[in-house]
Amino acid sequence: MEKILMVNPQLCTGCRICELVCSLSHEEECNPLKSRIRVFKIKEEGIDIPGVCQQCETPLCADVCPVDAISRDPDTGALLIREELCIGCRACT
Length: 93
Description:
GO terms for molecular function: 4 iron, 4 sulfur cluster binding; metal ion binding. Residues 3-22, 43-75, 77-93 form the 4Fe-4S ferredoxin-type domain. Keywords: 4Fe-4S, Iron, Iron-sulfur, Metal-binding, Repeat. This protein is an alpha+beta fold. The relative contact order is 0.16. The chain has helices spanning 17-27, 60-64, and strands at residues 37-42, 47-52, 70-72, 79-81. It has a two-stranded antiparallel ribbon with strand order 1-2. The chain has a two-stranded antiparallel ribbon with strand order 3-4. Strand 3 (70-72) and strand 4 (79-81) form a beta hairpin.
């Protein structure tokens, strides 16, 4: 049986506790950067959107990123967002 991760954006308050719990249960440390869930804050609209990376084989999000903030980790093969490079343009969403 394949495991899937589902989130309900209507219930999101932007507290980001899901990021901490996810990283703790999978990585054994409370580190939101290692979470499989990311909460994106859209300040202009006053909303928070939880997102789950699908780890696509051919990630279109990485192709459209104007600053190359999304790349594949050479050791794990996981797609990562380098927050220090991200300009928040939301082209990846």
